[in-house]
From TrEMBL:
Keyword annotations: Carbohydrate metabolism, Glycosyltransferase, Pyridoxal phosphate, Transferase
Enzyme Commission number: 2.4.1.1
Cofactors, names only: pyridoxal 5'-phosphate
Listed name of the protein: glycogen phosphorylase
Amino acid sequence: MIPKKSVNVDSAEELICTSRFGTFFGVPQQVFNRVWQALSRPDSGSVAYVSMEIGADPDIFHPVQDFLREQAYTKSENPALLRLLKKYLNGPRKVPNYSGGLGVLAGDTLKSFADLHMPVFAVSLLYREGYFSQLVDSRVGQIDQATQWSPEATPTLFQLEDPEQPGQPLELTVPFFNEYDHPTLAKAHVWMKMEISEEMDYFVPEFLLDYSIPSSPPWVREAGLRLYSAKSDIMKANQRRMLGSGVLPLAERLGLTIGTIHLNEQHGVAVTLHLILRQLEKKLGTDCHNCMSDQDILAAAEEAAKRIVYTIHTPVKAGHDRFARSLYTGISHATCHRILDLLANDADSPHEYNFTAFAMRVNRAVNSVSRLHRDVTRKQFPEFAQKIRAVTNGVHHLTWISSARAAVFDSTDELFGWRDDPGIFVQAEIGNDPVFLGKLQQAWAEDNRTLVNYVNRMLSEHRSRMEETWIDPPNYLSHLRQGETSQLSPGTFTIGFARRFSTYKRADLIFEDIPALADILLKNNWKVNFLFAGKAHPQDEPGKSVLKLILDNQEELYTRSKGLARLLFIPGYDMRIARMMVAGVHTWLNSPKRPLEASGTSGMKAAMNGVPNLSVMDGWWVEGYHEGQTGWKFGYEGPLTADSLSEAPETLLYAEDSRSFYALLPKVLEMFYDRPDEYLQLAVSNLKLNVPIFNTHRMAAEYVRKYNLRLDPETAARIEGFARLYKSDSCD
């Protein structure tokens, strides 16, 4: 049973709150006022968290909806309230403003900021066509379609109103410049998504800039339509500018103060340009571009750096924005060119600006997202090695722990308070409690049935639609006659793999030698389900080819194993499917080329449910492996060399790492099928060892040390308690 909220309201009407920017719903007025005042005080030093994508779909974490149902607040005589109730209880549950792990991490981070009552607001863009919707055809592979969604109908999302024109959208003006240094005024409407805490006693406002409005120039409208639109380099560059250039005007229009700007990746680094320009104008006057020296620019950058915290998320070259100097000459002010010439220069590519290098140079703190990633980043950016630290990623435990598992934890006295404090699991004596173990095993079986039933329904729907659409179903089992041989069975060992399809992630690694894989299963009559999901970027043709290989391997694997192995692809991967998968599988597979996976949060989500990982020693798993107590490792573990960072096909170690996997797999299957009690202890070890570490409460507490926030004593003490759970940057 979900514990009751601490919010004290006697009716749903008390969750309506107002400000000069409109009417909102989800927290009492006094909570709304307290948060807004905290963000608006001149001395607040609040944090602006800037991210190109934020994933926080309200269909998998929904404290307000839970509260309304728990209290049976479903009807009202007040028409305005009734509309809000219908929206929260029955409205669409997707906000497709994310592509994958980076965005979902941002959403999880904001939820923990809210749970911890931290003075933070977020800034991102609103994409009218989302990222893209994925169709998968067995012959063609991935097919990309624009996403259709309705921000107006989505719970937790509200369009801000103009205080001077009630009922009219708030319109933000963001100036850009062309090659003649003439200003072009971009316009954006502002949406606020409320990331409301579990207890509904706090929220973090997430402001989404909607540039796709009639009053903006056509090139701005087009760039704002779809996340990571890459029709041209200019469109890509403009989208980054639209994010970073909007931060300061937004804060000023809303009356919010900023002590620290946290760049979640370098996409919004244009805000740093504006900080430097303001510092130059403050020192030299509005005519600074005619009299500034290089030393003036560097001094201004040093001042701007005091306000910037930067998180770098990837060692992969494609993840770092580089733009031709000639391109930027045509879309920005001459003063910007001078700043970029000094601060965004790229020694390896003199004709380009490197925005990762720019973000790396201008900040007061920079962090990687795991210890191994820290070491790799120091090698990539030796000039900044001394200031690069690790803050290992986490996930929001309340979002990713399944309802069945959560019910077990709620009913276990040893775990009292786990919702507020995931560190509770450290000291809990649950490994020898037969009642707890029995309930955990039942919850795992229930989650596995839920996942298997979803897949079987999907297969059935694909069969029924086969004659009605030009899409050829993406799974071999869809083409078999309905029956036991064409379905999955609960309780069969299930391996899950779900993430972005990119060549370095090697989704097809374990199918490198299908005859060898089939022989392992045939020798012992072991049944295995392989469930895969994920998207390739629309412009990533090599990534799409890896996805197509998964589809192409299905029939051969099924046939060679005589039906023991069933490989399926689940299209349309999103947060709801992810939550179902990380709880419903029996192990989580991660097979990137080491050390190109900087973190890998999907494996953490599995660990939150006790699910062991089966992974290459990369990213977070180097810290989460615990000498085999929480899962298994395979693949190359040697020193980091120049070839280690290469994505060239001949360097991806398919033969070596797949052989390592085949050597390990029998040990995993033997334990699952022959020693289930021992397998269950791996789940308990994950709960005790990994839940307290790899959660965003702990991660947020580590960020607080970089933010220089002034917190009330109670909040500061609570956050310090989470910081003591783990020190990411420890060399121990």
